[in-house]
Automatic annotation (TrEMBL):
Broadest EC class assigned to this enzyme: isomerase
Species for this entry: Halopseudomonas oceani
An example Gene Ontology molecular-function term: peptidyl-prolyl cis-trans isomerase activity
Protein name, UniProt field: Peptidyl-prolyl cis-trans isomerase C
Catalysed reactions listed for this entry: [protein]-peptidylproline (omega=180) = [protein]-peptidylproline (omega=0)
Amino acid sequence: MPVAMARHILVKTEAEAAALKKRIAAGEAFDVLAKKYSTCPSKKRGGDLGEVRPGQMVRAIDQIIFKKALKVVHGPVKSQFGYHLVQVFYRD
């Protein structure tokens, strides 16, 4: 079964997610912003989701983790929890 390592930032609005994505693109650290702004418990680890397998995350996030380019910040992506920014480090 495939496995991937990813991190994310979860916020309430698309505008918040877009603003954070701009800050990351300008050089701010993903993990620092995740700790400060994310509403997910993973924020304690800088948004680190650890290793995940298909089906562990909601479908929208699963699609990014297992199908999109590595080491790129994807999003904002909407789920029932809010808006995500997702970065995938590797997948096997």
